[in-house]
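Hi W.,

Here's what went into the run:
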Amino acid sequence: MKIAVCVKEVPSATAARRLDPSSNRLDRSGDSELNPFDVHALEEAVRIREGGAEVEEIVAVCMGPESAQRVLAKALALGADRAVLLTDEALAGSDIAGTASALAAVLGREQPDLVLLGQQAADADCYVMAAAVADQLKRPLVTQVAHLDLDGSALKAKRQTEHGYDLIEAPLPAVVSVSDAINTPRLPSIKAIMGAKKKPLDRLSAADAGIDPASVGSAGAHSVVRSVAPPEAKAAGVTIEDSGGDSAEKVVAILAEKGLV
Amino acid sequence: MRLLVHVHHDDGEFNANSLGVLAAAAGLGAETVAFVAGSGLDDAWAGGLGGHGASKVLVADEPALAGGLSQPIVDAMEGPAGEADGILFGAGVVSADVAAGLAARIGAGIACETTAISLDGDALVAVRPALGDSVMVESGFQNGPGVVLARANAFAPNESPSGDAAPVERVPVSVADWSQAARLTGREEAEAGGADITEADVLVAVGRGMGGPENVPLVEALAKAAGGEVAATRAVVDAGWVPYSMQVGQTGKTVSPKLYIACGVSGAIQHKVGMANAGTIVAINKDVNAPIHEFADVSVIGDALTIVPRLTEALQARRG
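Here's what came out:
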């Protein structure tokens, strides 16, 4: 079995996130990291292998700028055997449908039995890529999976909806996005980090992947940012550093003042 | 100008988020067509969407749509979507999957987490808070219709729907084999029983920052001292610490207590949409970058595991 894990480079949670006023795109000049939700997908791929399934290869697939090589290095340290970076100036500014078709082009070359994604990207807070990719690949889809079992050529998944839990079965090949509750990712060992440097990282241009440049990037985007504005001002909250050991008393004093205790 | 609004339903009940978007779309003054998919649907039931703003209801009725999974619905919606200038969805797990699959299928732009919609002439405009709700981004669409996916609880349904029935039209449905390859085989319904957290004045929420299920009693003790009930994030419910009935957020309950004490809760958007209307929000989280510190009224930067018991003691001391 072959597992592909789609990963994304996102601005680091500690970096100041802002939109570039000249393009209204996310300013990606600051520190970046592997999308934390994708770490759960990588961990799940490794657990599937450790669980006894015959997994010949785990390949991490990323579309992004040159700098995304670093998040692929992290993916390799977390257990991927090989990484593919789809990078091309023509892809910059792709919207969700464009990104899905570009990822599907790479996945179509890879022919994995299982495509795993994180449930959402930490920068956009959208949870739509798995469904868009599955549609492009014409493969069955299960999203926001909290428990995943593979059984030969099929999968069984449990996922939460507004009504409780759905139990879903699907034949492989399939596309699955995992919930961040599906597992607790391990930290990579120093050995794994060093070993990652020896693992292959393939680079593809849009042309290499057979992607029509007119269908992706800003040129092919169907959604456009019209304007960006600050939100309605909200009164700033009180911040209490838990250093003096009296933070609990401070909280109680504030609540008492508000008549809440 | 025609807007097509997907209305999710479960067990014969229309989804409130879908009805909210339907009402908002109808308020724009464009032709507003509702779309429902399922198996064995009743025309009179579907026509009832007229009271929520639909001028017409398209019904896709076919056994392959019975399971309520997203992919057959994308197939059923593809035709009607081709005749629409905008296709709108309320928040929800299945609705989001349909919206995304449909956008990919027809090559449309999609605006996620939308909290407001408007028309600029004949152009559909969607607004969403982004980057931790620090900016409001206004999006439009080009080269085809736009797909709009709403944020949970962003749009309220008509409070007093009229009894007007909308005309119902059954649409032809063709579901591909691959679209129906995934199958819903069962449901684990939300467990009943326990306190109704939507009625509580005080809620103390447990998040993953509390470490493990062995520490839930610390949160229970704080809830008792504060005179409230325990709530939870999706992460700890999925991990089995507490039952689903205690979950607050997008796929859980929407609450508005006077006081909400979040213990080791990051404040992800899926949680925020369920509790942002709480009167006073106290957040205890050691991660200074946790989103919850952006919208809490009182932020304690520190380890919830050690602070929660101290807060319990401080409350008990005050009560004497």
